[in-house]
Amino acid sequence: MRLVELDTLRDALVGLPGSSGKRLTIAVELVANPSIIFMDEPTSGLDARAAAIVMRTVGNTVDTGRTVVCTIHQPSIDTFEAFNELLRLKRGGRIIYGGKLGDHSQTMIDYFQRIEGVPHIPAGYNPATWMLEITTPASEQRIGQDFAEIYRNFDQYREVEASIECLSNPLPDSQPLMFSTTYSQDSLAQFRTCLWKQNLVYWRIPAYNAVRLFFTAFCALILGSVFLNVGSKRERAAGTYSSFPYAAAQGLVELPYIATQTIIYGVITFFMNNFERTIGNISQQNNDIIVIL
């Protein structure tokens, strides 16, 4: 809580607007203690002050030894210069620039200004905005340069490639990464936490539960009115059959139809949702659907 500067809001309900929600999302990811965190536009929809708070939280996360990879949309100067490195891609996933930003983005600025035809950055101009403007396809066509090819011939590109190759091969005496358990807590601790959380969630949304109870009573009244005073004496009085044979026969007849429904529904949704295509996953989904039906 202190890391993401939410210790003063520890007793507040989830759903606060502004940077608090963004920081809460970061905090949830930090619970698993990851070594690398990916963030998709953490400052989108925030004003300058809220974005600065979020970026300060990101900086606090980096200070703990973790790596943070972000996509950023139209960052301010302060937000842009809070990062250490930049990866700029063009259409097709080709790299235009990948490396250090430098102090006040000077390393990146020097790199692009060395390219023939690239205008120098105006004084006080946002380096992020300038970089995006000069690397558009229209700018490439105007100056007759391919920024991706220029980067491939740059020394920094070869250094990055060599670094990737080195890090991709484990050391000879290193041991494979293994964990004794899949989860950090045992099943009982997970159950207690989930039970407490779900109970709290349901307690905090009385309107949802009230609507559920209302519709239950409403549906019961409709069905009750359809079969009003129908009774249960006709077949029993005639001695035709007892309750168990009737229910057993009805259930057995229903089984193939329910199975057909399950297969059709499961196959369509499974492939449309693009789940992992293994027999276990398909069987599990169909079993869940059968239970629901």
From TrEMBL:
The main location is: membrane
The UniProt GO MF terms for this protein read: ABC-type transporter activity
GO cellular component term of the entry, any: membrane
Q: Does the keyword Cell cycle apply?
A: no
Mark the transmembrane ranges: 210-230
InterPro entries recorded: ABC2_TM, P-loop_NTPase
Q: Which domain of life is it from?
A: Eukaryota
Question: What are the record keywords, sorted?
Answer: Membrane, Transmembrane, Transmembrane helix
Which cell locations does it reside in?
Answer: Membrane
How does it sit in the bilayer? Multi-pass membrane protein
Q: Where is each ABC-2 type transporter transmembrane domain found?
A: 190-231, 233-279
Pfam name, any one: ABC2_membrane
Database matches in PANTHER family: ABC TRANSPORTER G FAMILY MEMBER 31, PLEIOTROPIC DRUG RESISTANCE PROTEIN 1-LIKE ISOFORM X1
Q: Tell me what this protein is called.
A: Abc transporter g family member
| Source organism (scientific name) | Thalictrum thalictroides
